[in-house]
Design goal:
Structural class: alpha/beta
Strand content: 5-15%
Radius of gyration: 21 Å
Number of helices: 16
């Protein structure tokens, strides 16, 4: 019989998008159950990956009563299933999963850290989140930051014994399917249709952002910087691919007004396939305040785009300054504007980095390399 492995995320979109294909790969070696919220969505992910699922409702917000109910349900499940390994991702799944696994005496309790929301929290909320993070790591037997920078932050904050920490491979939780994220997979007709639909000319220089349209992703700074760039370069366009989160992390009203009023800022909402939008673009702009190991920067690089990123963990490991993009300070809209203009005004710089972009990703972050590193880690533990 295969050993039992349970993988947990707070919401199934994380299982779906951030761990795409990984559960299917691991199912050759383990009897896997995927646990997350939203039973309907989770079942679809399980069917695609070929693994069992079990829905337990969890919230991304601080909800003590719901969290306690989730903890009780998960403890009961783990005592019944007796898995060899429980592996959690995302903060709420981490605390619920690791605490339940500790109570149920699961031998190997693994938690992957892919960014910490507490980095932007203050006051009482920050104190609560710090304690939750420490408790999560205390209950885990092994903790896997998905970037070297994130590991350094955890050590600096003294969240856990450094001996528990390990970065697998070159970082990332799932790597990139470099065959799927290949510009050759997207036809010219697809991009031409999108250009016509959104009134983007071949001569336009397109900056693209992919992700949640929230404050923590630097969208307020990006929109202001773009407005300044546009004054000098009328052919510049800003393409926003993603959804708003008006309850959890809303943009400034001024930012929303600029997005709606400026015809050169094109907001297309959430897209299940971002590749056509990346292919028609020139540069990915990703001015996030905090990340674990951002998939979108790897995706854009694999599609041949140089990237403007902030100097935060993950981003500053994927991007090598002057080779496949550039790195700017966090929350610095002036520096962001300067770099955006630099790429428009220096085509040789842009083209040289575009040439390097894909190789920088395929050589370091191909998906199967990451999956095998995780599998080998499981083997070494058990």
């Amino acid at each position: 019989m295969k050993p039992k492995l349970i993988r947990i995320t707070t919401v199934p979109i994380s299982m779906d998008k951030l761990l795409y294909g990984q559960l299917s790969y691991m199912s050759d070696y383990y009897d896997i159950t995927a646990i997350s919220s939203d039973e309907t969505y989770l079942k679809k992910v399980g069917e695609r990956e070929g693994v069992a699922t079990h829905a337990i409702e969890m919230s991304r917000e601080i909800t003590p009563i719901k969290d306690l109910l989730a903890l009780i349900a998960l403890v009961r499940l783990l005592k019944r299933e007796k898995p060899l390994i429980v592996h959690s991702h995302t903060p709420k799944a981490g605390i619920v999963g690791m605490l339940a696994a500790k109570i149920a005496k699961v031998p190997f309790r693994l938690h992957t850290v892919a960014g910490m929301p507490l980095m932007e929290a203050t006051g009482v909320k920050r104190k609560i989140l710090n304690r939750v993070e420490r408790l999560t790591y205390a209950c885990a037997t092994h903790v896997y930051p998905n970037s070297l920078g994130l590991k350094d932050i955890i050590v600096e904050m003294k969240f856990c014994n450094p001996q528990k920490l390990k970065v697998l491979g070159n970082g990332s939780s799932n790597g990139i399917n470099t065959h799927y994220f290949d510009p050759e997979q997207i036809s010219t007709s697809q991009t031409e249709d999108l250009r016509k639909q959104h009134n983007i000319a071949d001569s336009d220089f397109v900056f693209v952002f992919v992700g949640r349209l929230v404050k923590d992703k630097g969208i307020n700074e990006l929109v202001i910087a773009f407005e300044q760039v546009q004054k000098f370069h009328a052919h510049a366009k800003l393409l926003l691919v993603g959804h708003y989160e008006n309850e959890l992390d809303p943009l400034f009203p001024k930012t929303l007004a600029l997005i709606y009023q400026n015809a050169s800022i094109i907001s297309v909402g959430f897209q299940t396939d971002v590749r056509p939008y990346l292919k028609l673009s020139n540069i990915l702009v990703f001015p996030s305040y905090r990340e674990g190991f951002p998939n979108v920067v790897m995706q854009a690089g694999a599609m041949g785009l140089p990237c403007i990123v902030t100097n935060i963990n993950g981003c500053n490991e994927i991007i090598t300054e002057g080779v496949n993009g550039t790195i700017i300070p966090v929350k610095n809209k002036m520096e962001l504007k300067i770099k955006m203009q630099l790429y428009i005004e220096n085509p040789e710089l842009y083209l040289s980095q575009r040439t390097n972009a894909r190789l920088q990703i395929t050589s370091r972050y191909d998906q199967k390399v990451i999956w095998e590193a995780i599998h080998q880690e499981y083997c070494s533990l058990t």
